[in-house]
Design a protein that fits this description.
Mean pLDDT: 92
Distance between the termini: 68 Å
Number of strands: 18
Helix content: 10-25%
CATH class of one domain: Alpha Beta
Largest sheet: 9 strands, mixed
Order of helices and strands: HEHEHEEEHEEEEEHEHEEEHEEEE
Radius of gyration: 23 Å
Amino acid sequence: MRSLVQRRFLHSGKAAICVLVLILASKAPAQTPALVDGVESIGITVSDMERAVDFYSRILTFEKVSDTEVSGEDVEHLEGVFGTRMRVVRMKLGDEFIELIEYLAPKGRPIPVDSRSNDRWFQHIAIIVSDMDKAYALLRQNKVEFASSGPQKLPGWNKNAAGISAFYFKDPDEHPVEILQFPPDKGATKWHQPSDRLFLGIDHTAIVVWDTDTSVRFYRDVLGMRVAGESENYGTEQEHLNNVFGAHLRITALRAADGPGIELLEYLAPRDGRPFPADEHANDIVHRQTVLLTHKADGVAQELRNRKASFVSSGVVANHTGQLGFNKALVVRDPDGHAIEIEQK
């Protein structure tokens, strides 16, 4: 039997704990209302459309959805390239999409031949496979260019990444591509469903950033995406995966309500990755742009102006001609220079 003093102490202690919880809750940052509804696709500038389509369809089993040629003021104002005429091929793998974009005019520059995985213009798509050994053998059979030294299985000490198998290679234009297989306890449920397909879909696109916290403020605090996972990766497996000696990465996964994720790769070491080219344009082959969906393009644009974001497009561009797959859109750059196209359907 507790004494009256003990009961009063316990009661006051519980009250103090409740007050403390309320204070902490009031100070916790509130999730920004989402300005974007999902990741719609990843756009990839290519130099030879027939070659690119053959690679993604014949080897990686993407299916062509559409093939269009576009030009005019709407496209010029959206992409920031005067005199644009481009061919756009939309391709699907599983539930996810890429858009291959060839600039018929004007032609842009090739990817720097000395590009490295820790340069900030690095961006890849991560394709989930049902069998890493079979996928790697198929890529070897098709003589793809290696970016990793071979498939790497991340070690057991790394709790958030343990058991993940991954391999980097390059498409015909030197764009890095990743294949990835999750162990049973990781990844979305859909990646573990029985399938007769080898290449299943796109889990995320990964981008190199200089400072994770700055990038999170852009993607989470401005656009309203959520942080879905974090990991710190290093060791020989990570070095050989990225082909960067001494690679030590802080990795942050971001998700919207729908579509693939965006994965932030901050190299804690080495810190010698080069910044995004200041004069990069959408017709340069190094260019990728992640396409996000919104239901309020004008509101997004105003918020981004308030945050002093760098616009590529001349504001919100309306689709007057009907040849583009949206009602209105804008293109901006994230804090590291990666292009983000935000579309309202």
